[in-house]
Write a structure and sequence with these properties.
By secondary structure, the protein is of the alpha/beta class. It has two domains: about 160 residues, Rossmann fold (3-Layer(aba) Sandwich), CATH 3.40.50; about 35 residues, no CATH class. It has eight helices and eight strands, in the order βαβαααβαβαβββαβα. The strands form two sheets. A five-stranded parallel beta sheet has the order 2-3-1-4-8, sandwiched between helices. The protein has a three-stranded antiparallel beta sheet with strand order 6-5-7, with no helix packed on it. β5 and β6 form a beta hairpin. α1 crosses α8, α2 crosses α3 and α4 runs parallel beside α5. The protein is globular and about 45 Å long. The protein starts with a strand and ends with a helix.
Amino acid sequence: MNYILTGGPATGKGTRSEILSKALGIAHISTGDILREVSKKDETMKDMLSKGILIPDETMTKLLKERLMQDDCKKGFILDGYPRTINQVYELEKILDEMGVKIDKVIELTVPDELAFKRILERKKCEKCGKMYGIDFPPKVENVCDVCGGKLVIRTDDTKETLKARIDTYKKNSKEILEYYKNKGLLKTIDSSSHPERMVEEIKD
């Protein structure tokens, strides 16, 4: 079982991918998490992420291929945040052909822009373990992680300016990608405005 979960910023790809991966027993691959990890040691990458600039296809494909080759992907995976350009679609197919696997379904998540802004500007991340919190999953104690007790902080790339750039970039690049998968009979669009647990049940159905 190999899936792509796509959608604009704050449509809930990360949270829903994580819940779905646990329910299905397959790997959750977040390209956003991969890039943020790399940016800790790469100032150029850090600057691009802070400005909402799309990472070059060659760089992104290399990082993704390394991740897909890991053992936990053998049972299946959910791609969260990739592909983001039509060229990445073709590069992904090359990688999967080498692996002898294919994508079973592409799920597009959608929410109104107003809700996307609210989700982004109110979400926080544990600086110790990385767990995310927001309007759907608030912490039991304000600014304290339920899991490890770490301090909750706002991500450096979560600003109004960055969000607007990311939404514009997604809308510009997604049309051709979605049309491509629609023509292959793989695309399913789901409104992710509802609570993650409820929406994940809809995806599983």
